[in-house]
Design brief:
- The chain has one domain (3-279): TIM Barrel, CATH 3.20.20.
- It is built from 12 helices and 8 strands.
- The chain has helices at residues 3-9, 24-32, 42-56, 65-75, 77-82, 91-98, 100-116, 129-141, 150-164, 188-191, 195-203, 271-279; strands spanning 19-22, 61-64, 122-127, 174-178, 207-211, 227-230, 238-242, 260-264.
- It has an 8-stranded parallel beta sheet, sandwiched between helices.
- The two termini are 26 Å apart.
């Protein structure tokens, strides 16, 4: 696994905890004035990403690939139409991830980010295979709900693992799987269906993490996972503690002996207030 990322996330006795931020919506408002994030124009995206990173100084640089694909599909409605009409739940995700044009764009985004953050861990964040397959199927077929089986999840995991091979030369440090909030799926049994993704991360020596929070999530041993991010009490392994929204209203952050902080910056937060609150963690 990537020691750079693990070393960054591991708190030492004489140091402060690392701070991992989800600030995409906030940065879009503050830096771009609410204009579209230039996902499809790598040079402009790099400028935006560097401004946000310089302003907030997170410990980890993140490319949120799920958000990239959302923008890609909005710009290519014909692609979404080609994914519709199939009963097999993983069909839409398979078609999306097999498309070479967005793959090449993600590779280029990672290339420019890696060149900009030579001394900062770079992580690709994606929806978990379970979440991604369900959401793309619902969007392509314009439905509100779908039942997803373990066979569907295993197939989705193979599609995601194949997609990840495109980034073998991208020099990323880690991969984060984001579960749906409150679905409680980050259990050892549920994660077993992600084995193709776990194998890919291990092969490319990427640190692999999972973000799962909300009702139903009881942390336990997770085989093949190098770190986790949760709002539940968890002392085992390398853990990022999700800081609640009440922190931005003035509440003190939770105290824990090890691990790192994970925060979502409110989109409507005042910049002065954000910097003031983040200073408490550093």
């Amino acid at each position: 696994m990537s020691r750079d990322l693990i070393d960054t996330l591991t708190r030492r006795e004489d140091s402060r905890a690392a701070v991992w931020l989800d600030s995409l919506g906030y940065s879009q408002r503050v830096i771009l004035g609410g204009a579209e994030i230039p996902w499809l124009r790598p040079a402009e995206f790099l400028n935006f990403h560097r401004q946000a990173h310089s302003l907030l100084r997170p410990s980890v640089a993140t490319l949120q690939a799920g958000a990239f694909y959302e923008t890609w599909l909005m710009a290519r409605p014909e692609a979404l139409q080609s994914m519709a009409g199939k009963k097999r739940l993983g069909f839409a995700l398979k078609q999306l991830l097999a498309d070479e044009k967005p793959r090449r764009l993600v590779c280029e985004l990672l290339r420019v980010l890696r060149s900009a953050y030579s001394s900062t861990p770079l992580v690709v964040s994606i929806p978990s295979p379970r979440r991604w397959a369900a959401s793309i199927h619902k969007r392509a077929n314009r439905i509100e709900a779908v039942a997803i089986s373990e066979d569907d999840v295993e197939s989705a995991s193979m599609y995601v693992a194949d997609w990840l091979r495109s980034f073998a030369e991208s020099s990323i440090d880690g991969l984060l799987l984001e579960e749906e909030r409150g679905d409680g799926q980050a259990s050892a049994q549920a994660l077993a269906a992600y084995q193709p993704v776990i194998n890919a991360a291990k092969y490319y020596r990427w640190a692999l993490g999972v973000l799962s929070q909300g009702a139903g999530y009881a942390p336990g041993p997770l085989e093949g996972i190098d770190f986790r991010i949760t709002d539940a009490d968890c002392e085992a392994g390398i853990t990022g503690r999700v800081i609640p929204d009440s922190f931005w209203a003035g509440e003190n952050p939770p105290v824990f002996r090890k691990g790192f902080y994970y925060l979502k910056v409110p989109e409507d937060a005042l910049p002065e207030r954000v910097l003031e609150r983040l200073a408490l963690l550093r």
